[in-house]
Task: structure prediction
Amino acid sequence: MHELSICLALMTQVERVAAEHDARRVERVRLQIGPLSGVEPALLKKAFPLAAAGTIADAALLDIETGPVVVRCTRCDSETEVLPNRLLCGQCGDFRTRVIRGEEMLLQSLDLDLSEDDPPRVGSAQRGEAAPGPA
Result:
């Protein structure tokens, strides 16, 4: 299941963004995943809690948005939405198209808790101190 390794790489990016903003924790992670990305959203949702365990995003929710596949025809220059298994131009029917949307996996946004009222969560560090290790 390569979705776990994708989630681990995602957590590296999430932790970096959270640190840049001095976040106390990450509450929500929003992704956009195209149908041709090679990533299975249902498996990614199952792998996410494993990758987030013990991090600043330990209790974060994962929202996944899937978008359409859009191609540009090299013959008539039209952009059309198509089915993932039928990449023909929607205007002229030509097979010479380029995918311009639908192969991506993008981190769209994070909901960060920036309050300083709560004690830091496991996996987050106070300024200048190391994060606590596992007990």
Summary: The longest strand covers residues 25-33.
